[in-house]
Automatic annotation (TrEMBL):
Region (Disordered) residue spans: 1-20
UniProt source species: Streptomyces rubrogriseus
Pfam family of the protein (one): GerE
Taxon lineage: Bacteria, Bacillati, Actinomycetota, Actinomycetes, Kitasatosporales
GO biological process, one term: regulation of DNA-templated transcription
Domain HTH luxR-type: 825-890
Protein keywords: DNA-binding, Transcription, Transcription regulation
Gene Ontology terms for molecular function: DNA binding
Protein name (record): Helix-turn-helix transcriptional regulator
Length: 892
């Protein structure tokens, strides 16, 4: 018998709903799980928390797997489960509650004599809802009510009634809402009271391991990288993974199919268009199509593309409805990758030719907002390279073409720049790209064009950034041509221009100043002005300006290491070279430029220590690094190391040939010329032509000191002791020369003394040389000294100083192989760098090189380089010996 006040009908009247139609029993049935359904235990465990909270919300996009997940979980419960799939026709409260009552009756949760369902489709009486709440509260076992597709319910009156029943049902009801949108319930109160279980889109996404298991259920076995790539592309979206798997299963090559998969021509497109795009308002569809050209977007950027001002509300609504828009934070969003692909295809169909203009609108907005990287990408995509180049130059970011971090990406971005781009900024970028690949001809030509334009233009503040960027390329051109005056002029101009630019812009792009100083320092080094070069290079090496300045710091350290080597400080050169290599590797690049000179110096140091196998290995590493043609200093450094190594191997002709690049720059270097002359002279001496060897030394002076000492050794070997002593006297030590100079000079003077009959003086000088050399592990000068030193080293005091570290197999004839003897315990205190001590401490804990690298956040190669240095300084060859010796010396 029906109730006139809408409180309910008797159970006998519940065969039909309030609208008079029969109940649709499929709405009360748990959805069947397909054979390829994958149970994800982590989500089942989370869902089990629903039994401890009154309310559970499973909120995710269409196809996220919400319904099947909940159905699978519900099927395994021992509690009664009332399942109801909500439909759009349930908006009238009476209809909705009639179906809720029926779902509870079907699962057996209601007693036979309980009040029936609402009689009126338009409403439901408060007494009936109160009776239902009281009835549920009195149950011995709680009932789980699942409302699937609850996002279809948008009637706030129903939401209030549902919250009333949930509140008063107490422990008798667990409500589970499966929805695409945020339900109209006071979720904040449930969260605050810890009475809410939530599973959202990010948690519903498949992990790579789960995706692999799902693909296997579909009969697909893909390599790990292929499965991971599919997860990245689908963002772990359940429907996307399943539809891709079903399509790939029909292919003869599933892996290749998924790699070439076109989302816009697939069942994925059909799904997303049906579930997300269709049914949207014209404004929402227009917004989605236009923002599909963007990787990420905010309301302001979206407004710029739509020429409207309502993007903020539309985006918030679309995100709230899980319309495949992800929130990134701070009002930024992004589209799901597959959805974006499909939208872009529809953009081309619906608005042909609109894409370039949308990119340019985005580029202009992003430039004003200060997002340089995205400005460049969209300007290039829109075909406006003047805009892209202007943004790069005006932001003082042209140095990024040289830092290695974004150099390749920027080179690819500007690769399509055609002749239609004619602005000074575009020509400046062309010049930078040419100089970066060491194409001097094209680079200098473009640079002259920019300079001509700037000289014709007024002294406009708008061109200050262009002028400053131009000085960077000027300094680089000077470095590559070895022209000191040009580099100094560029540095002076840059200093003046910096005053007219905002500090924040200079701070954001410290790489420009760092690169300029490195170029100036390199040219000063090439010119032989070591102290002046050290002054600017030290500024760069000691600066801390973020990732963009890592490689300028590495290059400065490499140059400083070479200066130390040329002044005879092997240990100091080695430490700085190791720091240069480590700094370059810290940039995270597989082949970091800037590490080359550091490895060249390490090679030269290894040659002086007669660790020839290590020298060859280091030299091989430099050949695997990016080429540095037309860069005089690295070329000269490599020529120096290679030629000396070849000399020690007895390859005199090859040594002379290898020394030639040292003097191939447009402007010659005094020290590079001197070293080339010494190599040619040493080769002649080795080939038995002392007269020619002496003539080749004409012009070699006291700078650099190491070179002068080697020239003096050749002079005395050729029978010209007075010339040798005069050359040594011209060396300006002044406290700046290291052991390699003092050892070489002492041996030359010792030979002169020995051959003039002053044996006591000769022994004293050799003893001093041995003491200085042992500290640096310096062996080469003794091996190159000649037979005259043999009797002296055989004497007891000198023998004790040489025993155990100087090479045991001394070369007696040209080409005879050198065999190093065992390393001794150091006679002087061992000095380890802070990072070497870090490595040593972990070595003592029996950690592997890989474990040490992971613990210190460096590469394995860096760890091995430090280990080699530690072994050398401790005069050991094995890990255990290193730890034991370090403990003896109190280093551990």
């Amino acid at each position: 018998m029906g109730s006139s006040d809408g409180t309910g009908r008797s159970p006998a009247d519940t065969d039909s709903d309030p609208l008079g139609g029969p109940y649709l029993r499929t709405r009360f049935a748990l959805p069947a799980r397909p054979a390829t359904f994958l149970r994800r235990q982590r989500l089942v465990v989370h869902l089990n928390q629903a039994l401890r909270t009154p309310l559970t919300v499973i909120n995710g996009a269409a196809g996220a797997g919400k319904t099947l997940l909940t159905a699978d979980w519900a099927a395994g419960l021992r509690l009664p489960v009332a399942w109801l799939t909500v439909e759009t026709g349930d908006h009238p409260p009476g209809v909705f509650w009639a179906y809720v009552f029926e779902s509870l009756r079907v699962c057996g949760a209601r007693a036979g004599g309980a009040p029936g369902a609402p009689a009126d489709s338009s409403g439901v009486g408060h007494r009936l809802l109160a009776s239902l709440a009281a009835e549920l509260n009195a149950l011995d076992r709680p009932v789980v009510l699942v409302l699937d597709e609850y996002d279809r319910m948008t009637n706030p009156e129903v939401a209030e009634q549902l919250e009333f029943v949930l509140h008063h049902a107490g422990p008798g009801l667990h409500l589970v809402l499966v929805t695409r949108t945020e339900p109209l319930l006071p979720l904040h109160r449930y969260r605050a009271a810890d009475k809410l279980t939530e599973i959202r889109g990010s948690e519903l996404s498949f992990t790579p391991e789960e995706a692999d298991a799902l693909l296997r259920l579909h009969g697909l076995q893909l390599p790990e990288h292929a499965a991971s790539a599919l997860v990245d592309r689908t963002r772990g979206w359940a429907a996307g993974l399943r539809l891709c798997a079903l399509a790939a299963r029909e292919s003869t090559d599933p892996e290749q199919y998924l790699k070439d998969f076109e989302a816009d021509h697939s069942t994925v497109a059909d799904f997303l268009l049906a579930e997300v795009l269709r049914g949207r308002t014209q404004e929402e569809q227009d917004l989605l199509l236009r923002i599909s050209v963007l990787d990420r977007f905010c309301p302001g950027l979206a407004d710029a593309l739509t020429s409207r001002a309502d993007a903020g509300l539309l985006l918030a609504g679309l995100h709230g409805e899980n319309a495949f828009i992800e929130r990134l934070g701070h009002s930024w969003y992004r589209l799901h990758p597959l959805f974006r692909e499909i939208l872009r295809a529809h953009l081309r169909e619906r608005m042909p030719g609109a894409e370039p203009e949308l990119h340019l609108r985005a580029a202009r907005w992003l430039r004003r907002a200060g997002f340089l990287a995205e400005t460049l990408a969209h300007a290039a995509a829109g075909g406006d390279f003047d805009l892209a180049a202007g943004a790069l130059v005006d932001n003082l970011a042209i140095g990024q073409l040289f830092t290695g971090l974004r150099s390749d990406a920027l080179a690819r971005l500007f690769a399509d720049m055609g002749p239609e781009a004619r602005s000074p900024a575009s020509d400046l970028v062309r010049a930078a790209r040419a100089l970066a690949r060491r194409d001097l001809g094209h680079g200098l030509n473009r640079l002259r064009q920019v300079q001509n334009h700037l000289s014709d233009a007024e002294d406009s503040p708008d061109l200050t950034a262009t002028r400053l960027s131009c000085t960077l390329l000027e300094a680089l051109a000077a470095r590559l041509t070895g022209c000191p005056s040009r580099a100094e002029q560029a540095a002076a101009t840059a200093e003046e221009l910096r005053r007219d630019l905002p500090d924040h812009l200079l701070d954001e792009h410290q790489e420009l100043t760092s690169l300029l100083l490195v170029h100036v320092g390199s040219v000063r080094l090439w010119e032989g002005r070591f102290d002046d070069a050290r002054a600017v290079l030290t500024r760069v090496a000691g600066a801390r300006g973020g990732p963009a300045t890592v490689l300028p710091r590495a290059e400065s350290l490499g140059h400083l290491a070479l200066i130390d080597y040329l002044n005879g400080w092997l240990g100091r050169a080695e430490r700085r070279a190791l720091a240069a290599v480590a700094e370059a590797e810290r940039a995270g690049l597989p082949r970091p430029p800037g590490a080359s000179l550091g490895r060249v110096v390490l090679t030269a140091v290894a040659v002086d220590r007669q660790e020839l196998d290590q020298a060859r290995a280091l030299l091989a590493e430099t050949y695997r690094l990016p080429a540095r043609e037309h860069d005089p200093v690295p070329m000269a450094g490599r020529a120096l190391a290679v030629s000396r190594l070849l000399l020690d191997d007895g390859e005199t002709d090859a040594a002379v040939e290898a020394a030639e690049p040292a003097v191939s720059a447009a402007v010659t270097s005094p020290w590079a010329e001197s070293y080339a002359a010494v190599v040619r002279s040493a080769a002649c001496l080795a080939d038995g032509r002392p007269e020619k060897a002496v003539r080749l030394l004409h012009g070699v002076s006291g700078d650099p000191p190491v070179c002068a000492v080697e020239a003096a050794a050749i002079q005395v070997a050729a029978g010209r002791p007075r010339a040798a002593v005069e050359l040594l006297d011209s060396v300006r030590a002044e406290g700046r020369t290291g052991p390699a100079v003092s050892v070489g000079a002492a041996l030359v003077r010792a030979r002169v003394a020995q051959e003039s009959g002053r044996a006591v003086t000769a022994r004293r000088l050799v003893a001093r040389a041995l003491l200085d050399a042992r500290r640096e592990r310096l062996r080469r000068p003794f091996l190159q000294a000649g037979d005259w030193i043999e009797p002296l080293l055989a004497t007891a005091p000198l023998h004790e100083l040489a025993e155990g570290w100087l090479l045991s197999g001394r070369r007696r004839a040209h080409g005879e192989p050198v065999r190093p003897g065992p390393d001794p315990a150091p006679l002087v205190p061992v000095e380890l760098s802070g990072r070497e001590r870090d490595v040593l401490r972990r070595l003592a804990r029996t950690m592997s090189a890989e474990e040490i690298a992971a613990d210190l956040y460096v590469s394995v190669n860096t760890v091995k380089t430090h280990l080699k240095s530690v072994y050398r300084k401790l005069a050991v060859n094995r890990r255990g010996d290193a730890v034991r010796r370090a403990r003896e010396l109190g280093l551990l």
